[in-house]
């Protein structure tokens, strides 16, 4: 695996539970030759690695044909990643059999490129910190409120991965609003149970017993649409979710003192009411000395992970 900065374009690859995306990322963060394919999440690691390699191969060819060959492959992958080895040390069942996969070594052998790997949310944070909403900040906290709830802290352009690669599991902190609720990690009372899209939809369905037999929402976006349409229970659930996350962000601001907090994921598109409640709760919890830290939406969308993953090969490593 590569150490230090390298010239030339780098291929960024983002492995998620439903989609694998890749593109050739230039030094300015511009992306060419983007492509994607569905993730064979239930077919095992061999099928996933084959799909990743097949997606990268034509990009390698296109870059070489342009006279500016790719100098490396940066990967943002689902699961807990050992940043030193590129091995998946832990993963959920969303990607079957993924734990233990030596992603960096296998992709290096398949592509002939130097490879570095981080967690997919860590890659998103690097992209937003270096080219997106966190540009110019030396300490950028990314909060990803999507299907689950995660995040990352980027300090001086380097993502904090922690001693075991698990830094950024923001959803697994205690939350008063989640008291007694089951969490995806097997514990109870964690923030993810109310502040993620899945948790929001679960809370709506759990409290909708006895209501007219309509299809229940399957995502946070569904609940947000119901709230926008005037459903009072959806509005209650949405506001509770925003307040819970905002209070937690206020606590993280007090603890970490970031220059900016960047919020991404499906719930970041839940609308003005969600953002208003979130920011009010942040302000309520933030101590006076830390007041004024901006809490802003991400700007790069899904491209953030490609840009962030590619930056692993174009900037000094930790």
Automatic annotation (TrEMBL):
It holds the Pfam family ROK. The lineage of its organism: Bacteria, Bacillati, Actinomycetota, Actinomycetes, Micrococcales. This is Glucokinase. It comes from the Bacteria. Belongs to the ROK (NagC/XylR) family. InterPro entries: ATPase_NBD, ROK. Coiled coil: none annotated.
């Amino acid at each position: 695996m590569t150490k230090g900065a390298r010239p030339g374009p780098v291929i960024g690859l983002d492995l998620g539970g439903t989609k694998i995306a890749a593109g050739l990322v230039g030094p300015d963060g511009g992306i060419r030759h983007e492509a994607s394919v569905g993730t064979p999440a239930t077919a095992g690691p061999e099928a996933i690695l084959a799909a990743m390699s097949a997606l990268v191969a034509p990009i390698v060819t296109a870059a070489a044909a342009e006279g500016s060959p790719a100098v490396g492959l940066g990967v943002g992958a689902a699961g807990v990643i050992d940043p030193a080895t590129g091995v998946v040390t832990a993963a959920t069942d969303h990607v079957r059999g993924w734990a233990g996969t030596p992603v960096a070594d296998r992709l290096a052998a398949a592509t002939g490129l130097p490879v570095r790997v981080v967690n997919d949310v860590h890659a998103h944070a690097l992209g937003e910190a270096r080219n997106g909403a966190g540009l110019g900040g030396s300490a950028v906290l990314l909060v990803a409120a999507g299907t689950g709830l995660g995040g990352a802290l980027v300090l001086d352009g380097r993502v904090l991965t922690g001693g075991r690669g698990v830094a950024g599991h923001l959803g697994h902190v205690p939350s008063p609003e989640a008291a007694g609720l089951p969490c995806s990690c097997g514990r109870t009372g964690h923030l993810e149970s109310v502040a993620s899209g899945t948790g929001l939809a679960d809370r709506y369905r759990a409290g909708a017993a006895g209501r007219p037999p309509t299809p229940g929402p399957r995502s946070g976006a569904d609940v947000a649409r119901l709230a926008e349409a005037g459903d009072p229970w959806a509005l209650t659930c949405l506001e509770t979710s925003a307040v819970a996350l905002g209070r937690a962000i206020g606590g993280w601001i007090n603890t970490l003192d970031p220059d900016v907090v960047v919020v991404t994921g499906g719930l970041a598109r839940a609308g003005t009411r969600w953002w208003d409640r979130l920011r009010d709760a942040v302000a309520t919890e933030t101590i006076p000395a830390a007041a004024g830290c901006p809490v802003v939406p991400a700007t790069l969308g899904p491209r953030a992970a490609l840009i962030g993953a590619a930056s692993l090969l174009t900037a000094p490593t930790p």
